Amino acid sequence: MSQRILCETCRKVREQGRYNAIPREKRDGKAMLYSGALDRYCDSPDARTQYPLGR
Question: How far is Cα 51 from Cα 40, in angstroms, rounded to an integer?
Fold first, then answer.
């Protein structure tokens, strides 16, 4: 499969479309949260700050 290189504007539009397509639900306090930026699951919104973004 060939890989396409997108300009910065097109990449941002594509990322925004993917983000907008994520289903939204109220937090029940039990389910794990997935962070696409961190590529990991967290048990609370505050747990996301425990991990640096740079890996």
Answer: 10
